[in-house]
Amino acid sequence: MDREQIICPCLDVTVGQIMDAYEEGATTIDAVKDLTGAGTICGACIDEIEDLLSELKG
C-alpha cells in the first residue's frame, strides 16, 4: 500500500494520512472525515476510504 497515494483528490489527502488518522483512533468514516477532511467535499472517495478502513481493521 503506497502511503503517498492520493485517496481524496479534492483535499490531497493521502493513504498515509488516513492510516495515521486510524492510528489516532479514527476508525469510522465520520471520524476520518473529522480528522482529515477527506470525503467532505464531493464524496467520491468515500468507498475507497471505507475499503482502507476495512483493510486496517483486518
Structure characteristics:
single chain, 58 residues, mainly alpha, two-stranded antiparallel ribbon, 3 helices
Profile the largest sheet.
Answer: 2 strands, antiparallel
Continuous helix count: 3
- Report strand %: 5-15%
What integer value in Å does the Rg equal?
10 Å
- Please report the distance between the alpha carbons of the first and last residues: 14 Å
Helix content: 40-55%
Uncertain residue ranges: none
Q: Biggest sheet: strands side by side, in what order? A: 1-2
- Helix/strand structural class: mainly alpha
Give the helices and strands as they follow along the chain: EEHHH
| Morphology | globular
In round numbers, the mean pLDDT is 97
- How many strand segments? 2
What does this molecule look like?
- The chain has helices at residues 15-23, 29-36, 46-57; strands spanning 6-8, 13-14.
- By secondary structure, it is mainly alpha-helical.
- A two-stranded antiparallel ribbon has the order 1-2.
- Helix 1 packs across helix 2 (29-36) and helix 1 crosses helix 3.
- The longest helix is centred in the C-terminal third of the chain and has 12 residues, at 46-57.
- The mean pLDDT is 97.
